[in-house]
Amino acid sequence: MQKKKDLALRLGLLNRLVRLAGIEPTTPWFVAKYSIQLSYSRNSHNYAMEEKNYITPAGHARLRAELLQLLDVERPEIVNVVHWAASNGDRSENGDYIYGKKRLREIDRRIRFLNKRLEFAVVVDNAARKAGEQESDQVFFGATVTYCATSGPSKGKEEMITIVGVDEVDLEQGHVSWVSPIARALIKARIGDCVRIQTPTGPTEIEILDVEYR
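RESULT FIELD:
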């Protein structure tokens, strides 16, 4: 009798948590669980144990879209596959079941990672600089910088990079992390300034030709 009471109490608490997260009690628990976690993360402001994750608005939107895709589409599909495979008998030699469980673990790891990155995300919006309301000739997070080497074999060759968050790095597109050596050297410099950066062949001086906020 006591066990039934304890179970009823737990179910009641669970339904309250689910409703607080904006989810109907009929929602599958694997979705509700991560939605509750995401809801809690959105309202958490305790950054004491974690570094702030600076990110552009576009980068933040991409991470959030990926998280929701995993929660709303990919995970439920894999769970259905695992349930179907498990109903087919012996699981030890069931390829669909083994693969599904492996993929489920991968998805859950990615969900936890994205959840943590979004929890500590600090979105840096340069709207004021784009609109000309603030100076836009100085390099800060989110800037697209055109520069050239002032000496050496690459003298005069123009290069362009955009300073973004660590989750947005794309070297083919010229997107470099704000913690990279070149970004650290460029931060707070202005058009016309020359700064020194460390390269594989040694220190090199570069001149800033242009700074844009796109």
